[in-house]
């Protein structure tokens, strides 16, 4: 029981200080888990992050599950994940209770109208940051434009594709083009 | 019953949102249209709350929507639903870690998933901009194009954009400044 409690406690602490999502969490995890406790290595953490990025769900939670699994199997994974979720859930419950009671106040409404402007900018920055590694050639550019059009203006079409269908179709299209290209490159290599 | 519906709706979001917190946005907009558990403006506000509190946007939104819909049990059901698929998937992947990392199938799928993910984040950003930067009711009432744009908001947005590029401050600082500007200039 002791190791599970320690896992839970450690991840409660990490959950308290993870502002700004998964990427901001990496330096904190490096210090807490690799340098201080030697539960993992920097290389392993990087691997967990790259996998966490390309599997469904929240990156920081995925990394917590990985480390918990390594320390204590399935029970460890659950303890670490639950620990990571504890603080954010409690904090948002408090904020939701506050907003439910005070959202009508003019001052709160003005503040959030201002904040929404900032949110637009934050999303634009995120798109610009992710663009470089994602839209790398003609195929990915066309895919980007197609998915954007279907998602943003889909309601004008007779049949609106749900976001889940767009995700599945894009993955399949990417895989088909990628494998075709890889096979073509293989043949070229043999011919030479 | 409402708890089960929350759990399932957020489990679906957790299963399909690939690429981090903002990837949940298209699913949250769909959920908002389909269920009315929260509004488009709520989603925009929640992005700001998530940037200023610990935790990821997906978890925060599920906790918030669950609370608004069914109180504390609702927020637990929704958060559990969101986390469940990714925890199960990571437990499976952890057993085949090296194979997964070197798999060409995984690499190929992500060649397509990455542009799709940011395309949907872009669309979500436009949804937020519709609430924040455009004043459709005023335009419909007056018919003047100059009334369509919320000029104060657009100027603030441009300043924040430049500020973020020049100064490497945390997003929390810019959110706090925007809140203050919103109150002082009555957005």
Which secondary structure elements does this structure contain, and how are they paired or packed?
The complex is a heterodimer of chains A (192) and B (187).
Chain A: H1 2-17, H2 22-36, H3 42-53, H4 59-102, H5 106-134, H6 138-153, H7 163-191
Helix pairs in contact in A: 1-4, 2-3, 3-4, 6-7
Chain B: H1 2-16, H2 25-35, H3 40-52, H4 57-95, H5 97-102, H6 104-132, H7 136-142, H8 151-166, H9 171-184
Helix pairs in contact in B: 1-4, 3-4
Word description of this protein:
The complex is a heterodimer of chains A (192) and B (187). Chain A is mostly helical and 192 residues long. Chain A is 84% helix and 0% strand. Chain A folds into three domains: 2-102, no CATH class; 107-133; 135-192. In chain A, α3 packs across α4 (59-102). With 187 residues, chain B is mainly α. Chain B has two domains: 2-132, no CATH class; 134-187, no CATH class. Chain B is 80% helix and 0% strand. Chain B has helices at 2-16, 25-35, 40-52, 57-95, 97-102, 104-132, 136-142, 151-166, 171-184. In chain B, α1 (2-16) packs across α4 and α3 packs across α4. Chain B is globular. The mean pLDDT of chain B is 85. The chains are: A mainly alpha (192), B mainly alpha (187). The interface between A and B is large, with 93 and 100 residues.
Q: How many alpha or pi helices of chain B?
A: 9
Assembly of the depicted chains: heterodimer
Number of structural domains of chain B: 2
Q: Look at the helices and sheets of chain B and give the structural class.
A: mainly alpha
- Structural class assignment of chain A: mainly alpha
The poorly predicted ranges of chain B are none
Radius of gyration of chain A: 22 Å
Task: Please trace the helix and strand order of chain B, writing H or E for each element.
Answer: HHHHHHHHH
State the share of residues found in helices of chain B, binned by percent.
over 70%
User: Mean of the pLDDT scores of chain B?
Assistant: 85
- Principal-axis shape of chain A: flat
Sheet bearing the most strands of chain B, described?
A: none
Strand content of chain A: under 5%
Euclidean distance between termini CA atoms of chain A = 61 Å
H/E element order of chain A:
HHHHHHH
Mean pLDDT of chain A: 83
Alpha plus pi helix count of chain A:
7
* Biggest beta-sheet profile of chain A: none
For the termini of chain B, the CA-CA separation is 39 Å
